[in-house]
Design brief:
Blueprint lengths: L5 H43 L8
C-alpha cells in the first residue's frame, strides 16, 4: 500500500474529502436536473392527449 507519513495522510484527507464531496454534489444535482426535465416532458405530453373514454 502507500507508505505515507502522518502529515501526508492528513493532507490527503483535507484535500481529498472536499473534492469527493464536490463531485458527489455535482453528480446528484445533475441527476436531479435530468429527472426534473423528464418529468416536465411527461407532464407536457400528458396535457396534449385527448381524455380517455368515460371521462368528462
Amino acid at each position: 500500500m502507500l507508505d505515507l507519513s502522518d502529515d501526508q495522510k492528513l493532507q490527503l484527507l483535507l484535500v481529498g474529502g472536499p473534492i469527493l464531496s464536490l463531485i458527489g454534489t455535482w453528480m446528484s444535482l445533475r441527476t436531479y436536473g435530468r429527472l426534473k426535465q423528464k418529468a416536465g416532458e411527461r407532464q407536457a405530453a400528458g396535457q396534449g392527449k385527448p381524455p380517455a373514454e368515460g371521462e368528462d
